[in-house]
# Entry
Amino acid sequence: MKKSRTSLVFFMVAFYIFASYLWWAFLLIQKNDLLLEQTLLNYQLEYNIANDLPKGDKSYLTTADYGEMIKKHESQKWMVFGEGFVFLFLILAGTMQLYRSFSREMALARQQNNFLLSITHELKSPLASIRLSIQTLLMRLNLEDKFQRLLNNSLDDTDRLAALVDNILFAAKMENSTYSFSLESVNLSDLVEKQAARIQQLAKDTHNISTDIQPNVMVKADKIAMSSAIINLLENAVKYSPESTTIAVKLNTKGKQSLLQIADQGPGVQEGEKLNIFDKFYRVGNEETRSAKGTGLGLFIVKSVSEGHLGKVYVSDNEPVGSIFTILLPLDISVVQPQNQQFETESTVS
Ligand code: ADP
# Structure
């Protein structure tokens, strides 16, 4: 939540507490006044009857009991004010303390985010230059096979590191809203096809990626951000499903939306975790028991990108095992869309 919005909520709560206290005090005092009026009237009646005085006689005003009643009423009034102010003070002090802690947290989160932004920027250029050097060595030198293999491994590691840095940078930008989506008309079918082929190439020895992509599905999207979301889902599917299994990628349209589904045959996501996994840094289980490496940023990026495009992402169960990640995006209504093909439900993707 943005700080200004939270401040507004805090001040509204504080104002509400103050106003309700005043209202409560006003009602209580009014009730006490009415009660006193009634008691005095009764007292006057009883006093005048007991002393054989006419009905409207006011000599009861000079009695000790009358003075006592008035004193008691006054002290009750001050008690209401006193207790009310203590209560009000405690509530307001608590609210202010909460607000101060929250502001500190926000400042810390901002600092961390800025740190992430600057450190990742700093990491990008040396990584690019290492990559270039390795590529040059590979091209220019006639190296023995084993040295070529070593350099190729280094190149792969550099790419992995660069992808990680990109993810961190991207997530940090999303978090502090410095990333603005530059929307253009994008052929989502081509984009999905391209990224599926790329990940298939990387996972050619372990997984089979099957595609069923309706051609020319057009959306208004930020190409870089959308590619990153698709890559994150595909990489997760590879990372979390056993070797030799198939990952099914399906792109279709449903009404005014495009529907991208990536289904794997991995362990699936438990019901209670289905919303949590989209939180920043959230990973299921703990570091000791987890075998797959990761940062917990991938699905946060997928969610931020989908929602940034007025779409949504969710996970459901695949049959008989695994999970299906679905991204729904509004179609680009400024272009003619392909005819809607048969639309299959979540559990029929694999
Ligand atoms: P990371 O993969 O780096 O841990 P993500 O944000 O991509 O972070 O995913 C968050 C968590 O969601 C993962 O730790 C994993 O437990 C779960 N998850 C993501 N994709 C899948 C999948 N395809 N199958 C099963 N679990 C998944």
The CA atoms of residues 121 and 342 lie 45 Å apart.
